[in-house]
Amino acid sequence: MVSDELKSLLNKALAREMQVSIQYLWQHVLAKGFEGEIIKARLRQIALTEMRHGEMIAERLTYLGGYPTTQPAEITIGETPREMIEIDKKAEEEAIELYRKIIKVAMDEGDYTTAKLFEEILRDEEAHHDYFSSVLG
Asked: Among 1, 135, 137, which residue's Cα sits nearest to residue 66?
């Protein structure tokens, strides 16, 4: 049995994944100009990856006896492609911090499956952060 704290953290992660799925998808649609054309395809790809993360987290949370949230965290789009990527980089930094905490709590509770799931997701989030950092130069 896992703690309510871990279930709450999983719901926080799920809300974040829903947020960035929508955020990155709308940025893909709204990004304009030369800079926008450079990032559009990658934003769509990352949005789809984040949707898959959300699905995996919701499935794990349900298995653990929790109930998945339907409310995304606050969505922020940005006005220019540069502002969009700055916002996205910060979102990935927040995710990395949260997911490291989830891994630690899961390991402390002996929930190795949740820890392994979040290690895999963390790897993707670090790659997203690296991409956003590279684009910003």
From this structure: 1
Burial (CB count <10 Å: 0-12, 13-18, 19+), residue 132 = buried
Residue ranges per structural domain of the chain = 4-136
Handedness of CA 59, 60, 63, 65 (dihedral sign): negative
Q: For residue 71, how many other CB atoms are within 10 A of its CB? A: 10
What class has domain 4-136?
Answer: mainly alpha
CA distance 53 to 56: 5
Cα-trace Rg, the chain? 15
**Per-residue pLDDT tens for 47-83?**
999 999 999 999 999 999 999 999 999 999 999 999 9
Greatest Cα pair distance in the chain: 52
Rounded distance, CA 26 to CA 90, Å?
A: 17
pTM of the predicted structure, to 2 decimals: 0.96
